[in-house]
Amino acid sequence: MRSSVHRLTLTDPGDVSPLAEAIERGELNPATIVAVIGKTPGNGLVNDYTRGYLTQSLALLIGEHTAIHWRRIIERIPFIFSGGTEGVLTPHITVFCTEPDGNSDGRPTLAIATAFTPELAPQAIGRKAQAMDTAEAVRVAMGAAGIDDPADVHFVQVKGPCLTASQISAAAASGLDVAGGNADKSMALSRVASAFGVALALGEISEDQLDDSAFLKDFTLYSGVASCSSGVEVRCNEIVLLGNSRKWAGDYRISHRPMADALDISALYELLDDLQLEPIALSKSFAQNTTGTRSESPVMAAFVKCEADRRGLIRGQPHTMLNDGDMNQQRHIRGAVGAIAAAVLADTRIFVSGGAEHQGPDGGGIVTAIARKPEPDLQS
Amino acid sequence: MRSSVHRLTLTDPGDVSPLAEAIERGELNPATIVAVIGKTPGNGLVNDYTRGYLTQSLALLIGEHTAIHWRRIIERIPFIFSGGTEGVLTPHITVFCTEPDGNSDGRPTLAIATAFTPELAPQAIGRKAQAMDTAEAVRVAMGAAGIDDPADVHFVQVKGPCLTASQISAAAASGLDVAGGNADKSMALSRVASAFGVALALGEISEDQLDDSAFLKDFTLYSGVASCSSGVEVRCNEIVLLGNSRKWAGDYRISHRPMADALDISALYELLDDLQLEPIALSKSFAQNTTGTRSESPVMAAFVKCEADRRGLIRGQPHTMLNDGDMNQQRHIRGAVGAIAAAVLADTRIFVSGGAEHQGPDGGGIVTAIARKPEPDLQS
Amino acid sequence: MRSSVHRLTLTDPGDVSPLAEAIERGELNPATIVAVIGKTPGNGLVNDYTRGYLTQSLALLIGEHTAIHWRRIIERIPFIFSGGTEGVLTPHITVFCTEPDGNSDGRPTLAIATAFTPELAPQAIGRKAQAMDTAEAVRVAMGAAGIDDPADVHFVQVKGPCLTASQISAAAASGLDVAGGNADKSMALSRVASAFGVALALGEISEDQLDDSAFLKDFTLYSGVASCSSGVEVRCNEIVLLGNSRKWAGDYRISHRPMADALDISALYELLDDLQLEPIALSKSFAQNTTGTRSESPVMAAFVKCEADRRGLIRGQPHTMLNDGDMNQQRHIRGAVGAIAAAVLADTRIFVSGGAEHQGPDGGGIVTAIARKPEPDLQS
Amino acid sequence: MRSSVHRLTLTDPGDVSPLAEAIERGELNPATIVAVIGKTPGNGLVNDYTRGYLTQSLALLIGEHTAIHWRRIIERIPFIFSGGTEGVLTPHITVFCTEPDGNSDGRPTLAIATAFTPELAPQAIGRKAQAMDTAEAVRVAMGAAGIDDPADVHFVQVKGPCLTASQISAAAASGLDVAGGNADKSMALSRVASAFGVALALGEISEDQLDDSAFLKDFTLYSGVASCSSGVEVRCNEIVLLGNSRKWAGDYRISHRPMADALDISALYELLDDLQLEPIALSKSFAQNTTGTRSESPVMAAFVKCEADRRGLIRGQPHTMLNDGDMNQQRHIRGAVGAIAAAVLADTRIFVSGGAEHQGPDGGGIVTAIARKPEPDLQS
């Protein structure tokens, strides 16, 4: 198989013309699209409808090009969008394509696979049941990607369902026992269940450690490669698994690093080093250029998972994110950590997602990047 | 004269006990305080009352220690606070003290002076008249600091008055011609007038370039060291001027760098280099430490002025800060650029102020830091 | 012609199943839909994408039922949505249908017509040119509705285009002279141009009063029946005109009242009186009923246009809407005046739109309601 | 004793000149002030510092006039401020004064008393322990007011302490068991404990019904006269009790009504009727008057407690307050119900407080008003 990655700036969820134009120019074949991950300009919270809007718009476009009804497109292709492009960030999509190709060069190359859990019952959301289903789906995706060693998995994006306030209220009224007393809590627990599912599948935690009582409690349990979101627009967990495989053909490879805390800029430099990229080149050669013509960055996509430290401190100093009644903590932390990544990577098209509970070290998170493979003679 | 600088974390504007304790421990003499600059946990916009609250609280404390009525303290000492500790930032104050001391070591050392313009009439705010008064006050402050060469001035913090919606409405009703049709615009124009005043005093622009028509229009005109804020709580421009002088005694010196845009991380590394500080030491040795015990950073204070690029682009990519109806652009940009500075300097106590119109390059801003002087044998 | 009106609660702009079900139940024929007006759960500001999302979702549904491509549906049917269901308000749509029917009862009955201006150039937006095109479209709509007397026109909803920050910046860069220096201002000026267009067509102002210099300045000029919104999702002005005509068949009629200020509860009671409805019945018989079964209100739809008084006062007392950096003034005023209307009308499905510049008395606005026609023997 | 009530508009918490001027004009004697209740222009949430700022400012002023240190003033006089003047509301204070006077007219007259609980331990906050202490303080206040019959108590305002995110985190780290996992929850539980304390003292609930398990669970238990807020600025519960007594002298009396839901406008008309005031007079004679000169309303103060129905429905229709990530539900509901009250009472100086858990009927709340006593011959 051959993998390819396309990044497109998309400021309005109702205007997918940049993808239409890329298709028309022959840059990508819509029939080969297997997943789309992106940032939308909403608030990234329960009432963010930009995710659903962009999904509908993209499915309509891909459907027109492939003669498949847009509702079927949504069922087949994971569209995983995180709302909130706070600060310097740019709304954009990263389109993942795969097609048959037997000409692997034998070097570690980006491998891509997707999987879905069955539809989740309301009472399964945010609990072990969701995690178990997720783990099974991750195993399926690893198989599909042809990756045997969990160490070759560098990123597992999961989008799962959550409950709205009215669904929670309706459940309570009908005696149904659901997890989380409000919408925010439900979103968080869904992310945790997804993360634990990934961790279980990759051997980061054992099944007997996976208990409802550990959710949002035992933060020593986490996945180092899971990036989980939740939203009202899905009913099952959708999984996009990325890793490296010597069996795949393609121009890109992937790596990741844990972030110890929200200021862990070292993780970004180490990640560039893993990908054999020079930090100096990045930070010096991409000067302000408002005409849009600039040399292309060797980093094709970057994914950051982060959180507002729930202990209220960063390196011993208090932050105010958890007490702000006007700006949700997720909008705070995305804007902050997204800016650090954008500054080091010299690109504002960073996928940054808040809510890193049990995803990377407590109070920190994970940073992942896809870059062009180095020239063969630079290969480590 | 001897300069000293004290940085204190202060999360609640009504609780100034950290300063009270520092005074009790003898770390600083309240009678020597000449200025206080800080970040408060408000929204940093027109309806942010945390600035006035902290001013009142600090004036009460200093007044009790110096037997001067707190209202007189407010008239004598500039308290310049910027609201908004978005993202990783920490509410804090930097206290500047000066006292007579003849033992200068002859090396460039932090020099501090303050000055005030006369009270400004509503129709002067945001116009050349305010700039002219500001320029005169800056000259007075340079004289007081014993700095002759404008190149030795590294930071001029100015706080000036602005008009509220009801004041603007009242002015219109009474036929008074005031600048700016709403409170946000009035705040911006006041910052511009202050910046142009600094630029004029330091020779960065000439008086014939200083015309009302250039305000928010000709962005090639700017000051490279002005950091201007505005708020309803003052009636005149208050100025804190910082620079280096070989005549002063003290442990600190200061430097600054322009930021070309919001991602200009190079400016931060260059600033560290100017201050003869190693970036590696900073980014590696300050690991997450929630106990609060950690080695002290050699950077004692940092000041950043930044803005959401009004052209809507950062390095050719769109940002969403100017179209967000829920989060003011200033909250966006402070959180983003503040995080970049905090990550490089490994400290969340960064003074970040938005609204950098005519303060540093258009779309970028200025970063300034105060650090311990290097050991004499390292002196360049 | 026969008019009919259908109100449907619609909380998620991506879920139009309530309309699908009404169609399936035969309650309305999708081929007869001529306009949809509604409230969506977004913020109602520049970056509110719920309006476009709901438009796309409804057009897809209607397109499937009528075998017309959804993009053609959007061109034919005005979908006029106002974002922001602050406070007690409920996201909902009001669907207007017309079909041939010769059996008028000779009493004043709701008449409906739509019209569109040509696509507007960026430099026409927010200026007299937009108003002139709007006036012509209003005249076309009056003709189509069979209304000769402007006094029989009770509501003219207009949605027009506005410019985003990046469009304004691009225009400035290319030397194009556009109205309004930022997105908020552009939205306001577009609403004014639409309102003046309505006023001109209905004889409320004369053409020589219609000058760019009156925009947002001379508030004695206004339309008493215009309700104007603006958004990035349209390129021409779309008009929905509602009035009473004795030539039409149908169960409903319409009336309106000016609101003198945001507290003008009398206007609501007078409007009920105009429609021969008892206030007591309304406020007493609609007790809290969480099961959803309740007797139907005689008021089928209500439309409110309101604004945060730009002088900063309501009945001599200051309000804080214009100085709030966290909550846009439109979110404030919609929540407030919407609640007053909902309390008097005993229904939370009120269309409330902010930005009433030159629409109704300065600082106040307009309230309009559609109700079942009284029994013939009650007819005035 | 003689009671008097003074209402003053106060837009800036740092500017208490309206009270200073009233004192100078001899309208009120600062030595007779026993309580101040008011609305400040903050967000009314955890990070609202306008409450503390106004408290400090008022205490400084009263302290200067009474030669008592301002910190002692804060300990003696309850300053109970609710942040958030959303929509049409006006920041203001209501000052309550009492002084010896033997000339009661024998008619029901406003009686005022205050009381304080001991300082509450962190683990008592939001639990039965806080309620028990509150009940005892309410009994003390009733005694001090000379009210024997609980039916004569019409309003018990309580302000209690809550825990910030960092305090909760610190408690967890030290093994201290505190109620509520985050700041918002802690605020809510503190309000409940206060309400249950009032209900217990007034016989609305029995002690065996008062169990931690009923908090935020059994909404059939509530007080019909409690109005409870919580904030980080107090360490004990402060109580202001208002009722009618034939033993007191004064010009005012008080009454209250339950609100069945957020649209219960009938409650307001019934309240006016209780106070023998004509609704027509109120709604007709207070026309928009921007000069500030207008006849005085017979309603001297109004207090509303309300909440966003946690079941997500109002009269069977969904609201969006609980799912809004940008605007806190309290800002929504205060703006909505405050506007309804302001419209009926024709005055924007309404004290509206959100968070009505166990204060009035579930999903509704309480409205209370103080008005001039009717002329004796109108006395019922």
Query: How many beta strands in the DSSP annotation of chain A?
Result: 15
- Largest sheet geometry of chain A: 5 strands, mixed
Task: Report the CATH topology name of the largest domain in chain A.
Answer: 60s Ribosomal Protein L30, Chain: A
Give me the strand/helix succession of chain A. EHEHHEEEHEHHEEEEHHEEEHEE
Beta content of chain A comes to: 15-25%
Write a structural description.
- By secondary structure, chain A is an alpha/beta fold.
- Chain A has 3 domains: 1-102, Cyanuric acid hydrolase/Barbiturase, RU A (60s Ribosomal Protein L30, Chain: A); 104-250, 60s Ribosomal Protein L30, Chain: A; 253-378, 60s Ribosomal Protein L30, Chain: A.
- The first copy, chain A, is 29% helix and 24% strand.
- The first copy, chain A, has helices at 17-24, 50-66, 70-76, 128-145, 165-173, 183-201, 265-274, 279-285, 329-345; strands at 2-9, 33-40, 79-83, 92-99, 109-116, 153-161, 226-231, 238-245, 249-250, 252-259, 299-305, 313-314, 317-318, 351-353, 365-372.
- In chain A, strands 3-2-4-1-9 form a 5-stranded mixed sheet, covered by helices on one side. A 4-stranded mixed sheet of chain A has the order 5-8-6-7. Chain A has a 4-stranded mixed sheet with strand order 10-15-11-14, covered by helices on one side.
- The longest helix of chain A is centred in the middle third of the chain and has 19 residues, at 183-201.
- Mean pLDDT of chain A is 92; it is low at 284-295.
- Chains in contact: A-B, A-C, A-D, B-C, B-D, C-D.
